[in-house]
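Suppose you are handed only these lines of text.
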Amino acid sequence: MDIFRSLTGGARFDKKRFLNDVQVFEAKDDAAASANVGTVATALKALDFFGTSTSGTSSSSTTAPSAAAATTTDDLDADPSVEPFANDTAVQDFRRSHRIKVDGVDVPAPIQSFRDLRDTYTIRDRVARNVRAAGYVTPTPIQMQAIPLILRGRDVLACAPTGSGKTLAYVLPIVHQLVEPSKEGVRALIVAPTRELVLQIEREVGKLVGKKWRVHVLTKATPIDRMPKCDILISTPMRLVQAIQAGAVQLNRVKHLVLDEADKLLELGFLEQVDEILAACPTTQRQTSLFSATLASAVEQLAKTVMRDDVVRVIIGLKNTATSTITQSLVFTGDESGKLMTIRQHLKTGELHPPVLIFVQSIDRAKELFRELVYDGMNVDVIHADRTKQQRDKIIDQFRLGHLWILIATDVLARGIDMVVQTVINYDFPTSVEAYIHRIGRTGRAGRPGRAITYFTRDDAPHLRSIVNVMKESGCDVPEWMLSLKKASQNERKKLKKSAPKRATISTMSKYDANKVKRKRDMIDASKRRKLKAEGKVPTGPAEEERPAKKSKSGGDSEDADRPVKKRKKGADEAADGAEAGKKKGKGKGAAPPAKKAKKVKGGEGASA
Ligand SMILES: Nc1ncnc2c1ncn2[C@@H]1O[C@H](COP(=O)(O)OP(=O)(O)OP(=O)(O)O)[C@@H](O)[C@H]1O
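From them, the structure of the protein bound to adenosine-5'-triphosphate can be written out as follows.
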């Protein structure tokens, strides 16, 4: 209960009302502390996303054999043995009951439990013990199918819902296949779009490997001239490209390449860097795995050009849908001022379950909303690309620990980050269906329930239909009239994705007062900068690699946390403008369309396809 006591500092929430949240935090603490029987059992029940387990009170009508039940030991022997599949039909039935769809030739059967890994794939005891010690008892559907595929040396293109355990699905087989630490150099390379995600993947790898393994993370903070040798390298694309160009890292021994949040990494902006990374990895021995919760068809085509011909595509559930454990709703706020009133009402009446994560479309808007809510006395903080690494790490820790109840974020936090979030609010309407799925996917993770509320104004109405479709496909109720709305054209959707709409400032002040305050703040900032300069100190700012390469018209940092910025300007608010310059420059170079570009890479490498 200690953690819950500290949660209440400065907050305005009613503890009795949030009894469920108290229980969530208690469960999390216990699970982390040890392999407590009761907690593991609870976690297992909560994690039973698709009715995997037949133990307990699962209402699933699965015909598949039971997976492991909760156990106190860290040994796979404790799992009840599972009958091997009698024939192909049994395999198909099992896949159907777990909503696993595969596309490819000679696809191995899914594992039914982690014990299968030892029986069929001779997984080492130590790895098995670590899986169990991490509290993982039953594999999730993506793990059931992707783990045997990767263990069999196959390339995998996987799309599975947010929070469904994709990280372990690639980390476990890689750790098993690397066998033991070696001085050979980088043998597994994992690339992810943001620094936060890279650090999170490192933690997940750390759960499975011992201290002798050298797992290295490459971010701006890592001096690339003193890069130690390592077995597994986890990096953001830009920093890795810098290390490759500086000759600080050799990738010629890479056997496993993983692109996490693959669709993001294959978008223009990251694609050039990913091309360079692919070119630095050998093709003959390289096994490539691409994972994401969203995969547009065009991205899939592109992805296949960098993989071997016998790549297997694995889709869990329906492609590009939200997790079914999230209750989604849409709230019409009229205009921008209506949004501020609505959020105040939502937060003050205690109607929403904390921790609450609020997404806005730009750094400026994140700052504006923060100012409004913090003056209301809320236990709130804000995270975006203009905050320093230290600030970002601290805020995420505070939020994870439950010391912070409301966090305002830009899309820099939309992908991959694994936290216990009860409610996601899209204060600003997402600029694409993918952004919507990833944003709301910060809640409802690992089988837990979650809630997502999306505000929309009159101006957002033309784009409502796409979100309504996602809601319907993931089983949420939507009013009939919304289903008859006209769908935005492809051009309109592209335009929105490229730049978020201009929105009125988030402020309860009159325009005159707001300008006066802004002028005053700018003067103070400028004076602080002059003082620092006079003292010969460089103002602390975020790493260039975490700044966006482009700025949406509204100053947004979108999801582009790791794009390169050619010119860096002074001052936080000016940073995104520098990024815009970088983007224009990229355009001027006449960046090749994705498919063409990737084909060039494949050809250039003499890919083993
Ligand atoms: N087999 C398992 N049993 C229990 N918990 C699991 C299992 N596999 C993963 N988890 C937990 O589920 C949570 C979500 O996992 P992960 O972050 O890998 O999801 P993801 O599918 O990559 O999500 P996203 O698409 O948002 O990146 C993590 O807290 C992880 O520790």
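What can we learn from it? Residues 47, 136, 138-140, 143, 160, 162-168, 293, 416, 418, 441, 445-446 surround adenosine-5'-triphosphate (CB under 6 Å). The two ends are 55 Å apart (CA to CA).
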